[in-house]
Amino acid sequence: MLGPVILAASRSDKMRRFVSAAPGTKQVVDRFIAGETVDQVVPIVEDAADKGLEVTLDVVGEDINTPAQAEAARDAYLELVERLKDLDLGPRAEMSVKLSMFGQALEGGHELALANVRPVVEAAAAIGTTVTLDAEDHTTLDSMFAIHEELRKDFPQTGCVIQSYLFRTEDDARRLSAAGSRVRIVKGAYKEPASVAYQDKAEIDKAYVRITRILMEGEGYPMIGSHDPRLIAIAQELGRRAGRKLDEYEFQMLYGIRSEEHVRLAAEGHRMRVYTAYGTDWYGYFMRRLAEKPANLLFFGRSILTKG
What we know:
Blueprint: H1 2-9, H2 13-21, H3 25-32, H4 38-50, E1 54-59, H5 67-86, E2 93-97, H6 109-126, E3 131-133, H7 141-154, E4 159-163, H8 169-176, E5 182-186, H9 201-217, E6 221-225, H10 229-241, E7 250-254, H11 259-267, E8 271-278, H12 283-292, H13 294-307
Parallel strand pairs: 1-2, 1-8, 2-3, 3-4, 4-5, 5-6, 6-7, 7-8
Helix pairs in contact: 1-12, 5-6, 6-7, 8-9, 9-10, 12-13
């Protein structure tokens, strides 16, 4: 399977240099990354709003080595909040954050990440929006969930992400599906060992359905992160069986993937949110998009051959 190989390459400085220098890279990166600056991403948020879509914005970047870099990541999100406030776009755009960007992996990282993310969550609440804590590899999850629980004491709308390929996630979903919670379910995009995660796609999909049912039957707000037509249809059916109205859950898809489906779901009355990443440190995010779907890798390969 190519996925694990690509995920391993996402941590390689040598591969980072090769991919960054490849002549077809920019064409493919532009498909998944909305821009490098806030100014470049604002028109995309406005266009999405015009189409009846919502967005979640992710400032890409994960390799944080110093507290100063973590503070810079915090400041990048605070800048984003200010722009959304100025343009009155807060209600249409939430934010997704990776706690690794806020210093989670550094010495004293749990406390550092909490201290850095709190002002972002507070600023988001002040403009009528919220923040979702993205899940990363399994070793970071206990810290992420603890920070999520702490933030929800003051900002109960703070969301989090769970991943269907992890064995633990069904229990996490039951715990998180209480009233007022916001939980995004995704398959997972990190290289995880067989001791903690399903390795077979069919098993991951089955777990995804079981977890979606838990969320739909719970009292929280499920956010269905998938491009898979079958899983989307199953989620719709599970929502109907649970007696949910169309605005009592939402779908989320990545910017640049199945854009027509974004609009179709919104036209049917569903809440549809587009996960929109931007920034200069795009490599890790980009490699996970390649790993998730072979067609993305083929598209990248053709671009290199065409431009080379």
